[in-house]
Design brief:
Blueprint: E1 3-7, H1 12-23, E2 27-32, H2 36-48, E3 52-57, H3 65-75, E4 80-83, H4 98-126, E5 129-134, H5 137-141, H6 147-167, E6 172-179, H7 185-188, H8 193-198, H9 208-218, E7 230-233
Parallel strand pairs: 1-2, 1-4, 2-3, 4-5, 5-6, 6-7
Length: 238
């Protein structure tokens, strides 16, 4: 049984990805930082449905995060890595503080490095792996007040290109999924939610399950010749 690590697995897309991968027969480790209850709830639902899941609570920005994951990867290597960690702090660039910049880059981009670095070594030894980063349409188009977020998410695009150059010959693929407006409790509560979803030619928001379906495909054997790509899932917005 292949083993998947879902960083940020307590997010709506992360939980949907965990359910999708578990349904495809993978054992999923659902990571959370503060929202442990959501991760445990998702794992319990998967187990109740006959799947295999566990949880990990860990701040990927902490100094010991690499060591924790390295020890886990020794005893139970991960073949699939999905990065769903993310967060925003919107400020016009001219008013952005160093803290606004570094905190968002740390959360969105540096956690990708911290989690993947210890996980990818067993993938290399096993000559098979799937690396999938959940980015954002903002990283493709840019957005007012989100230069920190766009830069951090955009950094993952460059990283998967380099990972592909380094490890495609070892059977490891690396891709980015860039969702547009996705219907979650958080986005639905936005004052301009109706305007945002109408920006898509499809006239609606996407769902976490639709993003998860794409993640599931990219994690499969059938997607073995797809690597270094940024795939937008935004109803035709970009």
């Amino acid at each position: 049984m292949k083993h998947a690590f879902i960083a940020g697995g307590s997010s709506p897309i992360g939980m949907a990805a965990a359910r999708e991968l578990a349904a495809r027969g993978l054992h999923v480790t659902i990571h959370a930082n503060t929202n442990t209850a959501k991760a445990r709830e998702a794992a319990a639902q998967i187990i109740e449905s006959g799947g295999a899941a566990d949880t990990l609570t860990l701040d990927l920005r902490s100094p010991g995060a690499l060591e924790v994951l390295a020890n886990m990867a020794i005893t139970s290597p991960f073949q699939v890595f999905v990065h769903c960690v993310g967060g925003q702090r919107d400020v016009p660039f001219a008013a952005m503080s160093a803290e606004d910049w570094h905190d968002i880059v740390d959360l969105n981009l540096n956690t990708f490095f911290a989690a993947l670095r210890p996980i990818i070594t067993p993938m290399i030894r096993g000559r098979w792996g799937r690396v999938i980063a959940v980015s954002s349409l903002t990283a493709v188009t840019g957005n007012r007040g989100q230069s920190n977020y766009a830069a951090a998410k955009g950094g993952m695009h460059a990283l998967v290109k380099s990972l592909t150059r380094e490890y495609a010959s070892r059977g490891i693929t690396a891709n980015v999924v860039a969702p547009g407006v996705i219907e979650t409790a958080k986005t639905s509560a936005l004052e301009n939610y109706d305007e945002l979803r109408k920006l898509s030619p499809s006239g609606r928001a996407g769902t976490p399950e639709e993003v998860a379906s794409l993640i599931g495909f990219l994690a499969s054997e059938e997607a073995g010749y797809i690597s270094g790509q940024l795939i937008a899932i935004d109803g035709g917005t970009s």
